Amino acid sequence: MTTPTQHPHSTRRADELHLATIGAGRIGTNHAELVARRIPGARLAAVADPSPEAAQRLGAQLGAEATSAEEVFENPDIDGVLITAPARVHTDLVVAAAAAGKHVFCEKPMAVSLPDADRAIRAAADAGVILQVGFNRRFAPGFAAARDAIVRGKVGTPQILRSLTRDPGPFLGDPMRTPQWTIFRETLIHDFDALCWLNPGAAPATVHAFADALVSPEARAAGHLDTAVVSIRFDNGAMATADANFSAAYGYDVRAEAFGSAGMVTTGSCRATDMTLHDAAGIHAETSRRDTDLLRDAYLAELQTFADAIRHGSPVGPTGAEARTALSIAVAAIRSIETGAPVSISDVLPALDGLGSGAIS
Amino acid sequence: MTTPTQHPHSTRRADELHLATIGAGRIGTNHAELVARRIPGARLAAVADPSPEAAQRLGAQLGAEATSAEEVFENPDIDGVLITAPARVHTDLVVAAAAAGKHVFCEKPMAVSLPDADRAIRAAADAGVILQVGFNRRFAPGFAAARDAIVRGKVGTPQILRSLTRDPGPFLGDPMRTPQWTIFRETLIHDFDALCWLNPGAAPATVHAFADALVSPEARAAGHLDTAVVSIRFDNGAMATADANFSAAYGYDVRAEAFGSAGMVTTGSCRATDMTLHDAAGIHAETSRRDTDLLRDAYLAELQTFADAIRHGSPVGPTGAEARTALSIAVAAIRSIETGAPVSISDVLPALDGLGSGAIS
Amino acid sequence: MTTPTQHPHSTRRADELHLATIGAGRIGTNHAELVARRIPGARLAAVADPSPEAAQRLGAQLGAEATSAEEVFENPDIDGVLITAPARVHTDLVVAAAAAGKHVFCEKPMAVSLPDADRAIRAAADAGVILQVGFNRRFAPGFAAARDAIVRGKVGTPQILRSLTRDPGPFLGDPMRTPQWTIFRETLIHDFDALCWLNPGAAPATVHAFADALVSPEARAAGHLDTAVVSIRFDNGAMATADANFSAAYGYDVRAEAFGSAGMVTTGSCRATDMTLHDAAGIHAETSRRDTDLLRDAYLAELQTFADAIRHGSPVGPTGAEARTALSIAVAAIRSIETGAPVSISDVLPALDGLGSGAIS
Amino acid sequence: MTTPTQHPHSTRRADELHLATIGAGRIGTNHAELVARRIPGARLAAVADPSPEAAQRLGAQLGAEATSAEEVFENPDIDGVLITAPARVHTDLVVAAAAAGKHVFCEKPMAVSLPDADRAIRAAADAGVILQVGFNRRFAPGFAAARDAIVRGKVGTPQILRSLTRDPGPFLGDPMRTPQWTIFRETLIHDFDALCWLNPGAAPATVHAFADALVSPEARAAGHLDTAVVSIRFDNGAMATADANFSAAYGYDVRAEAFGSAGMVTTGSCRATDMTLHDAAGIHAETSRRDTDLLRDAYLAELQTFADAIRHGSPVGPTGAEARTALSIAVAAIRSIETGAPVSISDVLPALDGLGSGAIS
C-alpha cells in the first residue's frame, strides 16, 4: 500500500495489510478463510455480519474480531473490505466503505441497477480507493491462459464467443424467494463479464434473451427463471452466446470458447482431478461439485490481486466500469425477456460522464 | 428392396442394387466412390452431370455409365438416385426422380423454400418412394451415441442445446457468388436438424438470429453472410443455440451438446487421430481438415442406410418432413435477420396437410 | 499386380484381384467380409476351412466358393491368400501358398519358432511372392501418425518406449487349452512389432520378462500365463516395456508411447466414440469392446495395402523379416521366463543368411 | 500438537506451530515459502543452511531467523524441522533432529542406503517424534483419487502397474557431478513409493533394471545414468514398470496407471491448464515446466499434513518404514544394473526387527 494508515494504538506489523469481510455467509466464509490463511502479508482483522452469532462464529474460527459493518468502516486500522453480503446491499456497502476511505473488493454483482453501478463507481473514484469486483473466472488459470492467447493474437479477431454457467444441482433454493432476475444479475453476470473480457476492446451492442423456469416450473407463474440463453452482438462484429441453468446434475460447470479469424481457444472443465477410471461400464471421471472447489485457485488469486493492488497502489480490475458493462448486458437481457425483442445496449446504458469506459482493453 | 424392377435386357445380379448419382462435384464424387467401392450389394450404375466431361471423368474412374439426369430417370434398371447437384435444383430433381419411381437420397438441403419442401415431400409420398435427406451427422458414431443416450433418458428432459458448424478455412469461395442465405439454408441446416433430432418429440417455436460477413467483410454490402449465431426456443421449453462460420483456421469443426434435467452429452471433435505429440512447444494434435475425413464413417453409414432402406423397404430417415422442419428454422432465421426481431415458426410454416409432422420422435 | 495369372476358362474381370481366405474363424470371417465388401477391385473368390460346414456357411454369406486350402493352392484363378487359421499351422500354410505361387497375407504370428519363421521367409523369397504379416496396429490412424512423427524427427532419438495389449474381459477361453506361450507369441507379438517399428533402424538386444496366471490362477500349475510385463533393450540405447493381460474389464485396450530426446508421442484410446456423458455420477464415455471395432479401420487398411501390393508389385510390409524380429523378442521373453534371467537376442536369433535384416528402416 | 513445548522467553502464540527448514536450495526455498505463507497456524521460525548467505537471503525474504542446523536443534522453540538439504546428509539430519526431539519432515530420499534408513527410522521411533517423508505424489489430487479408487476396490486386484518420472529438459546439471545412482535413489524413488502405495498390502519381491546415459552419453564412461526402465514383481503377483529420464523436452511429466481384475485407473497430465488452442497448425495445450508448478497443490498438502500431524499427534505418512521399502527397490535396481540380473528384495533387505513393516496397508 502506498500510504498505509497506521492507527496510533495499533499493534500491527508495519507491512501487514488489515482486511475485513462484510457478510459471513457461504462465500464470505470462503473469502475470510482465504484472507486469514492463504494471503501472505494480509491479516483478517474483522468479520462483520448483521447476525452477531454468524460474525462471532466465523471470527472465533479465524481469530478475527466479530463486529458490524459500521464499526469496520469507523476502524482506522482496516485498510480494505471484502463485501460478501447479499447482492441487494452491495452498492450501499461499496459507497459507505469508499466514503470511509477503505479499499473495496465487492463480490459480483457490484450493483443490481445501472444507477447503483454509477453510484458505486463514483463513490470509489471520489474517495480514490480501489474498487475490484469479484469476477473470479478472470483468475482461473485456464481462463487467464485463454485471454492471454487472445491478447497475443492467437485466435485473430474474435468472431463467435461462448460462455456458460451451470450451477450444481439439485437446486436446493426456494424458487419463490429467489429474486426474480437473479439468473441475469447474479449468475450470467459472470458470463457477460467473461465474454467482454475475451473480446478485448469491443463493447456489447445488442442483446436477445430466452429464459424460463425449467428446473422449478411450479414457480414459473411467479416469474421465477432458472434457465436462460442469451445472444449478444458486439460492436466489432463478434457474436456471443451465454447460457445458464440452476441445476446441473453433474456439478459445477463453467466454460468458455472464443473463435476468431485465426483459431479458437476453449477453457473450462468439470473434471475434479486428472484421475480416470476404466471399468466394465466404460470410462469415468469425477466432477467438481462446488464453485469453491472448481475455482479455488481463482478465488485465491483474485484476493491476492486485491491485496497486491492495495499494497502497490496498482489496481488491475475487474473495475467498477467493467462491472457496469456486464450489468448493462444483464439489464438489456431482462428487458429482452420483458419485451420479447432484442435490446440495444445504448437504450439501457446512458453515457457515464467522466468515469471512463467499461470496455476491457 | 421389396419388389426390385428387373429390366428385360439387364445383366444385373438379382440381389444387386443399382444406384446413380446426379451431380459430379465434390460431394457427388465422394458419394459415388462410396457407392462404387464400399456399399456391399450396391452398384454404381450411372453418373450424371450437366457437364458431360465431369460425368465421363467420374464414370470412367468408377466403372459407371456417364449419362444425364433425364436418362437416369428413364432407365428402368436404376433403383435409386443420389442427388448431389447444387442446392437450388434439388427439389426439381427430387420431384422428377420420384415421378420416375426412383428412391431418392437427396443431399441437404432438400429445398430452399418451404413450398419447395412441400413439393418434394408430396412427390415422394405420391410415388411411394423413399426420400432420405443427407443430414450426415445423425450417422456419425458420436452423434448417434449422443442421441441414443438422450432417447434412453440419460440427460433427462433437454433444456439447453448447442450445435455448431465451422467450415475449414481459409474460405476459398467467391463470396459474391455464394447465394445470399447459404449459411442458413446449406450450412446451419445441419445444426437445425441436429438440434431437433437431439430434442426428440419437441418442435421449434421461436427463432432469433445474428449474422454478418466477418470472414469476407468486403462482401457485406452485397448481403453476403459468413458468420451467424441463431437461438431457438422449442415447444418443450428447451433453448438452443447454433453457430456457423465459413473459415475455421483449424479445420472442420462440428460439435453438439445437449444439457438436460439429469445430465449432459457432448459430441464432436476436430482431432484427426488419437495421436498426441508433446514437444518443447507443448502438447499437440492434428485436426481433420475436410468434412469427408471427419465424417467419413457418417457418409458411409447414411448411404448404407439408404441402400438397406430400399432393399428392406424400411426407411429410417432423415425424412422429408424432418428436412422441412429444419428448413423452417432456416426460413425463420432469415426473416429474423431481415426484421431484426425473433420470428415464430408458426408464422413461416403453414400446416402441412396430410403429410405428417416433422417432429422427430 | 505385375503379372496376374489369367486362367484360360476364367470369367474374371481383367483388373479384378481374386483372394481366398484360409480359416473361417472369428478373424477369418472379419477379413473375408472386408475383402468381399470393402476392398475395391478385390473379390473374395474362395473360403477354405478344415470344417466344410464353416467354409460353406461363410462362403454362402459372402458369395464365395467354399473349398479347402489344398484346392485354393491348386486354383490358378487365385492371386493371393489370407491365412487366418490357428497360429500353429501358419508356417506350413505360408510355405504351401508360396510354393503354389500365391501372394500371402498371414495373420500374426507368422511362425511360433524361429526356424519356422526362416522357413516362411525363405519360401516366399524363393517363390518371389509377397509375404505380408498381420500387424494391424501399423495401419491404425493414430499409430501411423505416431510413427510418421517419429520418422519426421518430432521426438528426436527414441529413448523410452511402451506398448501394451489388454484383451477384453471377461476371459472366456479355457486356460487349460490355450497354448502355453500364447501371451508372448500371439498377444505381445503385436507389441514387440510395434516397439521395433516405433524405433526405426534399431534392433532389439536384450529381453527380460515377468509373467503369471493372474486372471486364471487355477491354471498356473499347468503353465498357463495370462499377464506379462516385458522389458527390452535396443541397440540404439532405447529401453522399452510391453505388457499384456487377457482380461481387461473395460474392453480392448491397445496403446503405445515413444519418448525421445525431443519429445513424446502417445497413441491409442479405448473410447468408442467422441460422445461424453455427464451425469450425477460424473463424466462417462463408452469403450470399444472388440478388436474388430477398435481397429476396424486398421484391418481395412492392411488388407487394402495387401491388395495394392499385389496389384502394383509394391509390398510395404510388415515383412516376414520384421515378423521374425518380433518373434525373436517373444522367444527371448519365453526363455527369460524359463531361466529367470535377461536373455540376449543374439542368443536366440542365429544369423539369417541372405534374407535381409528384420530391422525396420 | 499434543504437548507443545513452550519456551520461557517465547513470544509465540500458544496455538502456533514453529517450523524450521534445513537447506535453502530450490526445494528448501519452495517449502519455506509454503510454510511461511500458506500453512495456517504454522510459522517459519528459522531457516538454516551451511551457507550463511543463503540462509540470510531466504530468512530475510520470509521473515524468519537465519541460523544453522545445530542451532535449530538446540532451539526449544522449534517444534519440527523440514530437511531439504542434499540427499547424502538427510539421514544424519533426521537422526540429529529426532535426538533433539523435533518432529521431522524429510525430503526424499530419507536415506541412500538401507542401514541409513534403519538408523533414521530407529532414531525417530526412539525419540517418539513424527517422521514424514516427502513423497509428494501421494498428495497430488489425481494420485490421491487413484489410490482412493483402488482402496475402494474399483480396479479389483492390481495386476499391472506403471509409474514414471520425466524431469523437464534440457538437462542443465553437470552429469559428472551428479551422484552415480541418483536416477534410482532420488528420481525413481518417487515411482517406487507410488507403485507400492497403489498396490496396497503388497510387498516388492523381485526387481530388474535397465539404465544408461542417453541424455549425456559423454558421461557414460564415468557411470552416469540418466535414463532407466525398471520392472518389479510384487508378492501379490502384480507386475510393475517404472521409467525415468532427466530431460523431457515438453516439461515435467509424472504419471501412473494401475490395472487390475476389475478395471484401471490412470493419473497424471503435463497440461498446465484446461485451455486448448486450435489454430492452423492443429490443437495445442501448454505443459507444466516445473515440479513446483505441476505439484504445487501436492507440496502444500504434504506440508499441511505434517503440520496437522504434529498438532493432532496423528501422523499419516509416508512413514520411514515406507521410505525404506521404496529404497529397497532402488537398492535392488542398482544391484540389477551391476549384475545384469534380476534381484530379490529379500537379498537386499534384511528384516527390520521391531520397527514394523513398510508394506502400505
UniProtKB/TrEMBL annotation, chains A, B, C, D:
The answer, when asked if Acetylation is one of the entry's keywords, is no
This protein's superkingdom?
A: Bacteria
- One Pfam match, given by its short name, reads GFO_IDH_MocA
Residue span, Gfo/Idh/MocA-like oxidoreductase N-terminal domain = 19-135
Ordered alphabetically, the record's keywords are: Oxidoreductase
Matching PANTHER family, A to Z? BINDING ROSSMANN FOLD OXIDOREDUCTASE, PUTATIVE (AFU_ORTHOLOGUE AFUA_2G10240)-RELATED (PTHR42840:SF3), NAD(P)-BINDING ROSSMANN-FOLD SUPERFAMILY PROTEIN-RELATED (PTHR42840)
Q: Write the protein's name.
A: Gfo/Idh/MocA family oxidoreductase
Q: Which InterPro entries match?
A: Gfo/Idh/MocA-like_OxRdtase_N (IPR000683), GFO_IDH_MocA-like_dom (IPR055170), NAD(P)-bd_dom_sf (IPR036291)
What's the source species for this entry? Saccharopolyspora griseoalba
The residues covered by the GFO/IDH/MocA-like oxidoreductase domain are: 143-265
Q: Which family does it belong to?
A: Belongs to the Gfo/Idh/MocA family.
